[in-house]
């Protein structure tokens, strides 16, 4: 159990054992002093000596306090576990905001492409309209020429609709008058009209697609805003809960210190009494020796006792290229939204957690940005851990190997790291942190790793 004063490990009663050793040495020194100065000095009056029942009650009280400390320690562990879960929730919401930002950009790109398609369709429709006008001009020229040669518009009308013999004669005259080029003009106008209708339909369809993509972009932006708001609220709640946990932790530590201090109690008194008793016995033995000498006892001079010092307890575009790129960034600071295929970049604003750390004004990586940089020579990855999870093929964690990506968030992916082998991984952890190598954390880890190489 840690000592509240110096943080060392010691068993119950360690203080008394040390005191006894010190008093024994003091008693020996006193014996030597009495041997030179005579018997004028005396051991002080005895300290209180608690009874065995008092000692037993003291031990029971210490055990009860130890149990209370253990319970408070468990409560603290649970509080810290909740804090870790809340931090994971904040990371998840931040990654959801990252996803919405990526989706919004994709939707905007699609809308821009649809607008370009609509503009191209309108241009083609305008060209078709010009072709119609040209065909109509050719037809007008034909009609004018036919009139000069003696046929009339009325004859054309008769040819198209009348059933009389005169009308049939007019049709024959018209067929004789119409040349191949004039028929081509009529057919050309009809084709142009059909093409214009098709182009108009294409333009309308492209415009509808553009409007749909624009709506999707607006919806994606709304989703991004909601995710950002949720992240801010979660972080505010997490900050408040952190303060509560820190206060609880301080209270537990104080109780732990108090419990350790009370352990000395009556056992300390008993230890001090036993030390006094040893000193008293040494004094009486010295007086007996002096009395024997004074009575004429003969014998060789006794030498000072020798004590032995107790001995100390024994003091207790390849996987390697990807890993090399990631390891080259050790110590680079975390910046939410930071990092690309070329290295660390400025972070971006999130309106909450990352902003409170000034990530938008830092050059660094977030978790998915570090993966983008590490795998730049293998595959272009999106800046969102959820999409990166789907970027390769899955392998069970029991088969994971060096160079695989690991993910966290069984209820929604919020973090990614690169496995180094030997139970180690490299990650960009959180705002305020730095790119680091740490042991793999298995709490909330996804059951599969994602492999891009091999």
From TrEMBL:
The keyword Coiled coil applies. Residues 290-304 have a biased composition (Low complexity). GO terms for biological process: proteolysis. Signal peptide: none annotated. InterPro entries: NLP_P60_dom, Papain-like_cys_pep_sf, PG_Endopeptidase_C40. Belongs to the peptidase C40 family. This is Hydrolase.
């Amino acid at each position: 159990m840690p000592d509240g004063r110096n943080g060392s490990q010691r068993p119950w009663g360690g203080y008394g054992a040390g005191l006894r050793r010190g008093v024994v040495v003091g008693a020996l020194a006193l014996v030597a002093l009495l041997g030179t100065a005579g018997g004028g000095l005396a051991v002080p009056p005895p300290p209180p000596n608690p009874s065995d029942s008092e000692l037993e009650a003291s031990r029971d009280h210490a055990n009860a306090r130890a149990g209370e400390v253990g319970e408070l320690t468990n409560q603290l562990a649970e509080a810290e576990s909740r804090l870790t879960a809340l931090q994971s929730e904040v990371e998840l919401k931040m990654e959801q905001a990252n996803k919405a930002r990526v989706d919004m950009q994709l939707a905007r790109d699609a809308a821009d492409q649809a607008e370009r398609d609509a503009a191209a369709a309108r241009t083609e429709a305008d060209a078709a309209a010009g072709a119609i006008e040209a065909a109509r001009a050719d037809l007008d020229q034909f009609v004018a020429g036919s009139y000069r040669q003696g046929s009339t518009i009325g004859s054309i009308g008769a040819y198209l609709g009348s059933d009389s013999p005169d009308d049939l004669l007019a049709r024959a005259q018209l067929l004789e008058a119409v040349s191949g080029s004039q028929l081509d003009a009529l057919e050309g106008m009809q084709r142009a009209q059909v093409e214009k209708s098709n182009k108009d339909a294409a333009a309308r369809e492209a415009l509808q697609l553009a409007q749909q993509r624009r709506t999707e972009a607006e919806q994606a932006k709304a989703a991004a805003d909601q995710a950002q708001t949720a992240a801010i609220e979660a972080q505010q709640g997490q900050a408040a809960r952190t303060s509560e946990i820190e206060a609880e932790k301080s209270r537990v530590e104080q109780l732990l210190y108090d419990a350790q201090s009370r352990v000395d109690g009556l056992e300390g008194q008993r230890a001090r009494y036993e030390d006094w008793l040893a000193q008293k016995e040494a004094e009486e033995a010295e007086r007996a020796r002096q009395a024997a000498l004074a009575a004429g006892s003969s014998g060789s001079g006794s030498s000072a006792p020798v004590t032995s010092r107790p001995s100390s307890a024994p003091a207790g575009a390849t996987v390697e290229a990807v890993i090399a790129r990631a390891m080259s960034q050790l110590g680079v600071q975390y910046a939410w939204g930071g990092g690309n295929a070329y290295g660390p970049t400025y972070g971006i604003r999130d309106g909450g957690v990352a902003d409170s750390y000034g990530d938008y004004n830092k050059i660094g990586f977030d978790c998915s940005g570090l993966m983008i940089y590490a795998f730049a020579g293998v595959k272009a990855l999106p800046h969102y851990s959820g999409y990166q999870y789907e970027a390769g093929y899955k392998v069970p964690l029991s088969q994971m190997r060096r160079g695989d990506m690991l993910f966290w968030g069984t209820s929604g992916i919020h973090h990614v790291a690169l496995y180094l082998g030997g139970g180690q991984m490299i990650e960009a952890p959180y705002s305020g942190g730095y790119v680091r190598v740490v042991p793999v954390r298995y709490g909330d880890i996804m059951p599969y790793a994602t492999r891009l190489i091999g």
